Amino acid sequence: MNDSEKFDLSLLDPAADAARWERIVQSVTRRTLDVAGRQRLTLTSQLVAWARPALGFAAAAAVISWVGVATLGAGDDLQRIQGEQAASVLARWAARDERPSALSILEVLGSER
Amino acid sequence: MPADDPTAELVVRVQHGEASAFEGLVRLYLRPAYAVALATVGRPADAEDIAQEALIVAFERLDTCRNPEVFRSWLLQIVRNHSLNWLDRRRLRDVSRDPVPPEQPHDGPATDARAFRAQLLTALNGLESSEREIVLLHDLEGWTHPEIAVALGISVVMSRQILFQSRRKLRAGLAPRQDQEDLDHE
Question: Which domains does chain B have, with CATH numbers?
Fold first, then answer.
């Protein structure tokens, strides 16, 4: 046997017992899927946690926008009324501790335009 | 990476949210991860645990692997780091630092295989860590020199040279046993 021949390391082969090795592969795969599930859950939690500050921020932005339009007289009556309505809806949601979806917040803010 | 290697595609699929595609990466890389862990820690059972943990960590951090083409070297670095951390913990924990369990007496074929396995591990532990990685990845995992060169960041020529000298050292390390066997047969 010379040094250019492959060395027999089969005694160290972890997959020598194929059934056992398959169980290990399945176990690792299952654990990664669990991790993926937790990551998704965390993302959902983050979105829920995000909804409240975002709602507060949106309400404040709507109020500022409405006050600006009302005091500077920069918009017409329709614009002022829409801004007032959006600020009112957002403030009500915030006061009642509601958790509207991001889409709902955007729809309300859109009605201000 | 060879053109028919599915690694990069699997990495991209997992990065795009298809977690189940990671099974393909586990099937491709659990054994190489074991080989690299074994090269560092010297104990097969521990190397299996480290390889599994490293794969899970790799999955958790896959977003940080910006170039799927270098997944191999990225993963093997995680395995090395995990192995070194494990060694640090073992040094703190163990009174005895002997990396190989004591040899069993010769009382049958199974015991004989265990004894040879222990001698093989002792001979492997006589090599440098990089030599162990190359000989295990090549002779146990069947990786080619170009694959090893890319994964370890060395040249193909260097990979060949290191493998050659590693085999020579391994055979020299096992020679006393061979001599004893020859005497037993006489």
Answer: 1-97 (1.10.1740.10), 105-186 (1.10.10.10)
